[in-house]
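Sequence in, structure out.
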Amino acid sequence: MNQQDYIMRMIDQLAVFLGRIMFHKAAGNLVEAGNELEATVTNMLGLDPELFFSLPPEALSALIDTSAAPGPDTWYVAGVLLAEQADLLERAAAPSIAAPGAGAEDRRIHGRRTGAVSMLLKACQAGADQARVHARIDALVASIEFEAADLGLLRSLLLHYEADSLYGKAEDFLFILAALAGEEEHGFCLSFYDRLLLKEDGELARGGLPRTEILEGLQTLKGLWICGICPAIPGSKGD
């Protein structure tokens, strides 16, 4: 079996398992959905579900590297399953969202979603279908309220979409990063625009960020820093 056939078989298997999970979620059987999710981790990744869902992204990546013979399909499955658990946790927490301890549950949900994005980025780097993975990432990002602890992930997202010539989307992550970061990220943010300004106009337009919008974005970013909406530019006097 060649690699492409293997990947498609994995995707088909994942669709079957996700269908079972969705059936239980639709019926309100969250415990059964959780059991099905854990079985999917075991069956598709060969990993212990408790360990899989307890590790931060870096440790989980190391585990998958050593235990699951990772390919693009492996990282994709890992990302999808983390996102599914985040959804289950959110559904279970919804009736008591203001109850004591709800903050801790919010942290778990946040961690699963950011972990899922990390795994999906690895899937892209390993050669997974970009359109399918980007659709998953877009859905996750829409549900994540990024924090200062997520700066590394935001940098990775920006660089990923820039490398994929999706410059407009990369800029979206730049402004989230700039709003959360301190002065140490100023050079990284500005270098993004510097790199784009070296490109041809046609390429910039195809990437969703024409040269005029780059210049506008650069001025907007500096203006936000000067006004203090984002951390200030070192030594800036507002000129």
